[in-house]
Write a structure and sequence with these properties.
Largest sheet: 6 strands, antiparallel
Shape: globular
Strand order of the largest sheet: 1-6-2-3-4-5
Order of helices and strands: HHHHHEEEEEE
Distance between the termini: 14 Å
Helix content: 25-40%
Number of strands: 6
Oligomer: single chain
Length: 164
């Protein structure tokens, strides 16, 4: 986001400088006004609201329904669904961080849309994305990416909002 804003500012500065050069170095008259165009930063704040991020993450999983490409990589899948990667080493590390931050909703089977849902089913744990209607998307649902009703797996831990 910052680099996009920086590039836009650089273009705007370069355009203004070229405009002054084209006018022979003359400045705009004091009565001239300009209406600034809407910058990418102004539009980005609405384009990436928490709800649209949740919808995008759910769509990411839905578009990969049945894929086995992320088997054993549930944390990577949820991070990729949210447009990032490499934040947590495992689902259980993500859950433990939520617990330590006081952001974990232990045992709560009613996570909001986009919340991460966690299980303790291995040394690495397991994570998926809640759809807000009692279901979730995750890897390892019938051995592939799929949608199921909570809790589905044993040892449900709870949910937390994504911290990325």
């Amino acid at each position: 986001m910052r680099s996009l804003l920086s590039r836009s500012f650089t273009r705007l500065t370069a355009t203004a400088a070229l405009g002054v050069l084209a006018l022979g170095g003359a400045a705009l008259p004091a009565t001239a006004t300009t209406t600034p165009a809407q910058t990418p930063a102004q539009t980005a704040t609405t384009a990436f609201s928490p709800q649209s991020r949740a919808d995008d993450a759910i769509a990411w999983f839905a578009n990969r329904n049945g894929s086995t490409a992320y088997q054993g990589y549930c944390e990577k899948a949820v991070e990729n669904a949210y447009g990032t990667t490499g934040v947590y080493a495992s689902a259980i590390a993500n859950w433990n961080d939520a617990v330590n931050r006081g952001a974990a909703h232990k045992g709560d089977l009613n996570p909001p849309k986009g919340a991460l849902v966690f299980w303790n089913i291995s040394a690495y744990g397991h994570v998926g994305v809640a759809t807000g209607d009692g279901n979730f998307w995750a890897t390892s649902v019938n051995s592939a990416i799929g949608k199921q009703k909570l809790p589905y797996f044993n040892n449900y831990l709870g949910w937390a909002q994504p911290n990325f």
